[in-house]
Design a protein that fits this description.
The chain is mostly beta strands and 40 residues long. Helices cover 0% and strands 30% of the residues.
Length: 40
């Protein structure tokens, strides 16, 4: 899933790392070799 806006929250299903978007640069967030899931 591509990052679309500031403030989105993503979580890794494998290790539980969480990311909050502070600057949109395009592309997708990847952790543990898998795309991260948008959580809210």
């Amino acid at each position: 899933m591509a990052v679309k806006k500031v403030g989105e929250h993503y979580r890794c299903k494998v290790c539980g790392n969480e990311v909050t978007v502070t600057k949109v640069g395009g592309g997708t967030l990847v952790c543990c070799g898998k795309e991260m899931d948008l959580t809210r």
